[in-house]
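Reading a protein record of the kind used here takes little practice once its layout is understood. An example of such a record is reproduced below.
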Amino acid sequence: MVHLLSAQNSIFHQFMSELRDVEIQKDSMRFRRNLERIGELFAFEISKTLEYKATQTTTPLGVAETKQLREQPVLACILRAAIPMHQGMLNVFDKAENAFISAHRKHHKNNSFDIVVESVSSADLNDKTVIICDPMLASGSSVVNVYKEMLSKGQPKHIHLVHILASNEGVNYVKAHFPSTNYTLWIGAIDEELTAHAYIVPGLGDAGDLAFGNKL
């Protein structure tokens, strides 16, 4: 299942407009904050799909019938661009377990590249609901490779993939390479074009560089 936040009017559109704006992007603190706020929006939407249990909460005046999450998700962050998104989700799922994945593009002389996953630091994933966030879904190979590496930490019961901006090619790649029964794809907006260097157009640029500065 694919959920597209931009399909309906919401404050997401304002945050997305600011993320794309070349002038507003000069303020890296605001760029990070917009990533964080969109992470919070995604977390709220995902929370509607989770299981809850009935509880009783003692108030100063009596006992209220309430609900709580039946179990906490595992929030997985692909370093480094996803750090602000991860914080936004953690603001909502404040009792969640966490996973951190280091991955990068290894470029070759013919302009091709491979996705190298360097390390996975994670809680036990067996029978857990896992939320993997990364701002951009370009070719789709990054999140697929990350998912395969994360299986060394256990077999999740369901995966939520969360991306602020995606290409059609990336969406189709995920659909072709993920198990069809246990994942949900959450996307903010989809752009049509993906360049030969796997950059989304019009896109928003390099989210990691805009959030944390240029890298060598």
